[in-house]
Design brief:
Four copies of one chain form a homotetramer. By secondary structure, the first copy, chain A, is an all-alpha fold. Chains A and B meet through helix 1, helix 2, helix 3 and helix 4 of A and helix 1, helix 2, helix 3 and helix 4 of B.
């Protein structure tokens, strides 16, 4: 897909159904949590996850994330990139290599 | 950013820190849920949400979604697109316009 | 504690702070999800969970559940009991013993 | 119900089905999050929530909380009570009355 194509499609989908009125930032944030839990459920009880279902549930989380980003005029790639820079600074390679320790407990 | 640039950066970030070993699909699914709740917390109690914090928390959810997609060889735009086609079929414009009814309760 | 004592304490805590106005069922449901994710975070990355932290986060989830139950005039033990009866019927011992299969996929 | 009766019933339910092997603390924490999201879904899109469904979903969250408490030998009422004492100290009535401000931002 060319850049921005999925946003154009999402916008048309929502607009045709007159659903923008349901999409307050708060409601979108709730939907992200709800869909994230449906994704997590596929990894419950150690069952091997069905990848077709994972694909659909992950797509749902991503879709609501994009709808929220569009609503707030955030560029998804850009906010991931600027958060990555912050996270890189909080987790210097030297201190965090191979460890899952939270940044506020990392030691020299 | 050119297409794929954020994936290259994420890959380098994880690889430099030797964190791939923590990133099982199940753990990434847990992280998506955890970060989604941190985003939701910004919309708790009707407080006006701080948009800089929203940007960071939404970026965290997106980042873990992309890490899971990369791990499973899914293209994020592509899976959103194919899910959108399914959802469009489940929610025909004529039946669902202006309504938040779930598809299994939509009426003719 | 004698039965009902914790509810009396919760009621006094909320009332003294004039917090009942924040406790719509919807807000309490959000809080339950948010606190559940904080509990889940203690089990992220395979780190051994700190049991004192687990105690506090589990208490937070339980507390919001009780606040919602009190708000809707549900008795927590009673609703667990009646749900347990439904679940027992959906998962007959003979079919479900030792399996994590979802009820709609259980086989004779 | 007499005190402890619901725990006896839960224990019998799990034991008859040989499900204890699935109930690691981590899996129970995941289930709490998953069920919390199902409860939240009932309050999505501003639809009036169906109270019979709320009862069942809230019961599911409570049930997994109790299973985790039982697994870790925590008394549910007792941990709510000791957390309530901590929270009361963090949110003095004088500073927090009528406000939803987080404790680390409360002002004199």
């Amino acid at each position: 897909m060319y850049p921005g194509e999925i946003h154009a499609k999402l916008r048309a989908f929502v607009s045709e159904r007159d659903w923008d009125k349901f999409h307050s930032p708060e409601n979108l944030a709730k939907s992200i949590s709800i869909e994230a839990a449906e994704l997590l459920e596929l990894y419950q009880w150690g069952r091997p996850a069905d990848l077709e279902l994972v694909k659909d549930e992950l797509a749902d989380v991503l879709t609501y994330c994009h709808l929220l980003a569009m609503k707030l005029n955030f560029d998804p790639d850009e906010i991931m990139n600027s958060k990555l820079e912050k996270t890189s600074a909080k987790y210097p390679v030297k201190k965090s290599k191979g460890k899952s320790t939270k940044y506020d407990r990392l030691q020299d």
